[in-house]
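SEVERITY: medium
COMPONENT: batch folding queue
REPORTER: lab tech (J.R.)

DESCRIPTION
The queue accepted two submissions in a row. Attaching both inputs and their returned structure tokens so the on-call engineer can compare them side by side.

ATTACHMENT 1
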Amino acid sequence: MAADEPLVLGIETSCDETGVGIVRGTTLLADAVASSVDTHARFGGVVPEIASRAHLEAMVPTIERALKQAGVSARDLDGIAVTSGPGLAGALLVGVSAAKAYAYALGKPLYGVNHLASHICVDQLEHGPLPEPTMALLVSGGHSSLLLAPDITSDVRPLGATIDDAAGEAFDKIARVLHLGFPGGPVIDRLAKEGDPKAIAFPRGLTGPRDAPYDFSFSGLKTSVARWIEAKRAAGEEVPVRDVAASFQEAVVDVLTRKAVRACKDEGVDHLMIGGGVAANSRLRALAQERCERAGIRLRVPRPGLCTDNGAMVAALGAEMVARNRRPSDLELSADSSLPVTEPHVPGTAHAHAHAHDHDHVHEISKDNLYS
């Protein structure tokens, strides 16, 4: 870690976790998270209004905790990065508004960055600089995407994406059918270790010869599993929960890894990065490693704590923006819930004018009233 590397604070509020990270270059100094997942669990999923309120309450304490953990002052920062999209509109607005206020008060450059590109860039904090181009498989509750990134700060190209349910969404829905609670990913992963992945032949969506080679579909799988469970219950038979979990999970990770390895071969890329919340799944990691080794592909997967939403990933991409002299965003930066992955960086005014959305903007504020 060199003292002249950019020191950047990142804010992530796209869903239900308030994440604040601080990095110097590619070195992680602090990763503070305040989660509202327990509150949402009562409703079986994330409630946007509750998430927004939780972000509002957690923002300043989480930023202060991160600064203390990193041992730096806010005035030492070289920039502030924030997720400007995609995500829940209200939740994003809290993070973007906070980032703009801190940037204005401190006189620091502001960088609005893309949530998905951040999930790719976070791997630099663990395995060093990203290869160029980088092939990335991102899997979470809202996204299942195959992306090729020749330049993570300016050039991210979508090769394939989910056409219906994302992988993480399917995990949550099957967990609900099995009465396992929310979120579903961790508990299914745990139960699957005690089950037989070959016990039930669940379908593999979009794997036929005429199907889109890099797109994903888990809606049919979800329906098939739900109907299988319903049939068992209707017949008065006990549902083998562990075998269902293992067979369902195997169907998901089989498709994800098969398509990812194919994309690497087709594009001539000798490595694969996997990110997003579902990348914490132990079976996905194991099968990806097995198939990558057979194909001569190097696998890069961040540790589980960096796979789920966090501020460190936003700070990592922000630091890369500073290092590559990308133009900062201005105070017209907007939250865009449908920000395309092809925009890893949002300069501000031009983007706001190009989108026909109504956005909140920074009002006149006094620096004396803001934290420093």
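ATTACHMENT 2
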Amino acid sequence: MNTPHVVVVMGVAGTGKTTIGPLLAARSGVPYAEGDDFHPRANIDKMTAGTPLTDDDRWPWLDAIGAWAHERAGRGGVVSCSALKRSYRDRLRAAAPGVVFVHLTGDRALIEDRMAHRQGHFMPTALLDSQFATLQPLERDEAGAAVDVAGSPEEITERAAAALDALS
């Protein structure tokens, strides 16, 4: 895979965005940015306390990710971002029109199990229901592909790379 696109690895918490994103970036030879690093401290505090973010909480975060994606336009990059709603993806596309999405999808039980076993992350499993309730999958007119998260990180990355190659 060799693409100048900026790829947003999206999905609910626990799908493996932070695992698959760097693997996909390394495979592509482009930089990776961790979407969680763009959150203001207040957002992290809310999520740590088990409080779902509002759209107003998310706009500055999405704008910061969009600015990073805009800077990488034509040079490529991979960034993780839940991008759960169409309006969030529209906001990212407004900042970086060429962005494409890899939507990591999977069985809720598998995702919850993975969340329960990860260490040092601020997102509690209690917020998973709100994530699924908010999720609006990619629509036909959105550049991107859904990729199942069953299997090893390498298998998931291979499926993501193949899906991105098919978009080119």
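NOTES FROM REPORTER
Residues 55-72 form the longest helix (18 residues).
No errors were logged for either attachment.
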